[in-house]
Amino acid sequence: MAAHVRERAPNRPFVVLGESFSGPIAVEIAAADPRAVGLVLASSFARHPLPAQFAALTRLLDLRWLPKRIIATALMGSEATPELTARLRHVLAALPREVLQYRAREVLRVDKRDRLRGVACPVLCLQGRFDRLVNRRQVDEIVAAQPRCHVHWFDSSHMLLATRPEAAAKAINQFCEHMDE
């Protein structure tokens, strides 16, 4: 995926943003592409957030078994509006079970802490205080690998870019404006 994204990146300096599963891809791009002048990780991680023992269970993963209300609450907390919940249902219904299983297996193999240590550009981490999937431990691992990382906390759940778009955009814009300082 990193190569796919890098091929489509602008041929000028850019800031790469990775949310959740795409955070490790963004780390890889920021570590390898000299055009990347900033890295933003939103509700993301450098190393998988779940115990590796769950890998065997990914073959059983089928979100159709779970009530959509539980999925929406896990991802959006109390900020799950009817419109966002409907969009989430639509996206999940369109994803084949095999894709979800593959992504779950792949995420349990991710460890980009060494690549994150090699990132030379400024790093911003956006994190929800009420995130049930990516927690303080993952943020602490990001900061341990990239001590210059600025962490911006939101009173939000996992899907903070969807539930707090204005506040997230403001934090990202401020980061971009002050990257050279």
TrEMBL record:
Q: Which InterPro entries match?
A: AB_hydrolase_fold, Hydrolase_4
Question: What range(s) does the Serine aminopeptidase S33 domain occupy?
Answer: 3-155
Bilayer-crossing residues are: none
* Superkingdom of origin organism: Bacteria
One Pfam family hit: Hydrolase_4
Q: Which SUPFAM superfamilies match?
A: alpha/beta-Hydrolases (SSF53474)
Q: Mind telling me what this protein is named? A: Serine aminopeptidase S33 domain-containing protein
| Taxonomic source organism | Bradyrhizobium jicamae
